[in-house]
C-alpha cells in the first residue's frame, strides 16, 4: 500500500512472501564429510542407536508396544504419528531402515547413505518466510519512474535500489523492480547470513509474473 506525501514523493508498505528451494543439488563432498562425523559420534557413544531406532520404527509402523508408554517422549511421538500423513510415515520408515543398517554395519558406506538421505529430503523441501518493509520513492518527471535509493545500511553496507515503472500498454499497472547492492562483502552480517552470502540479484514483479516450478513436497516455515 502506498501513500502520497507530496506531488513527487510516496511511501509504500510492502508484505513479501518468499518461497525457495532448501537444496538444489546433492553435495557429494558434504555427504562424505557428514558420514565421517556420524561414524565418529557412533564410535564415542552407542546411545544414538539404542535410543533412535525404536523411536523411528514406532513412528513408521504405529506400533508403540516396545516403548515406555508412561514416558512423555513416547506420548509426544504418538501424537506426532497421529498427525503424520502417508508420505511422512514413509519418510520415517526409510530413515529407520537406514539408521538400522548404519548401527549394524558402522561403516562409511552406511553412514554416507544416511547422510545422502538427509540431502535428498532437502531437495524436496522448500523454505517459506515473510518480510515486511517500507520504502520511500521520488518521482522523476523526465523518465516517468518512481525511484527509491536507501543506504548503505548495516555492517554489510547494503544499498536498496527499487523502482516503479508504468506498464507500456496498461497505464493503470506498474512494474516493481528491486535489488540489494552489498558494498562491504567482508562484513560480519548477522546470525543468519554473512555479508558475502547476501543475494544481489535483481527481482522484477509484474501483474503477469511467470509460474515457478519448485517441486515442493515438503514445506518448512523459516525466519529467513
Short recap of the structure:
The protein has 224 residues and is an alpha+beta fold. The protein has helices at residues 28-44, 47-61, 72-83, 86-105, 108-123; strands at 2-6, 9-21, 125-140, 145-153, 158-166, 174-182, 202-205, 218-221. Strands 1, 2, 3, 4, 5, 6, 7 and 8 form an eight-stranded mixed sheet that branches.
Work out the radius of gyration. Answer: 25 Å
General shape: elongated
Mean pLDDT: 88
Biggest pleated sheet: 8 strands, mixed
**What is the count of helical runs?**
5
Order of helices and strands: EEHHHHHEEEEEE
Q: pLDDT under 50 segments (min length 5)?
A: none
Structural classification:
alpha+beta
Oligomeric form: single chain
- Record field, number of beta strands: 8
Strand percentage? 25-35%
State the end-to-end distance: 23 Å
Tell me roughly what share of residues is in helical segments. Answer: 25-40%
Amino acid at each position: 500500500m502506498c501513500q502520497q506525501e507530496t506531488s513527487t514523493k510516496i511511501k509504500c508498505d510492502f508484505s513479501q512472501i518468499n518461497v525457495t528451494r532448501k537444496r538444489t543439488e546433492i553435495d557429494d563432498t558434504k555427504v562424505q564429510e557428514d558420514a565421517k562425523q556420524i561414524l565418529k559420534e557412533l564410535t564415542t557413544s552407542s546411545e544414538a542407536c539404542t535410543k533412535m531406532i525404536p523411536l523411528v520404527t514406532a513412528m513408521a509402523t504405529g506400533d508403540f508396544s516396545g516403548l515406555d508408554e508412561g514416558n512423555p517422549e513416547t506420548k509426544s511421538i504418538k501424537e506426532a504419528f497421529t498427525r503424520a500423513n502417508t508420505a511422512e510415515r514413509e519418510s520415517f520408515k526409510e530413515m529407520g531402515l537406514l539408521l538400522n543398517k548404519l548401527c549394524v554395519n558402522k561403516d562409511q558406506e552406511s553412514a554416507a547413505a544416511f547422510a545422502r538421505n538427509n540431502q535428498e529430503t532437502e531437495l524436496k523441501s522448500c523454505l517459506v518466510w515473510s518480510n515486511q518493509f517500507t520504502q520511500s520513492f521520488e518521482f522523476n518527471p523526465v523518465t516517468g519512474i518512481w525511484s527509491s535509493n536507501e543506504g548503505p545500511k548495516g555492517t554489510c553496507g547494503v544499498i536498496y535500489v527499487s523502482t516503479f515503472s508504468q506498464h507500456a500498454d496498461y497505464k493503470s499497472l506498474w512494474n516493481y523492480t528491486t535489488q540489494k547492492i552489498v558494498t562491504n562483502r567482508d562484513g560480519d552480517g548477522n546470525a543468519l547470513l554473512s555479508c558475502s552470502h547476501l543475494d544481489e540479484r535483481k527481482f522484477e514483479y509484474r501483474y503477469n509474473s511467470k509460474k515457478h516450478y519448485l517441486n515442493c513436497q515438503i514445506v518448512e516455515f523459516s525466519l529467513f
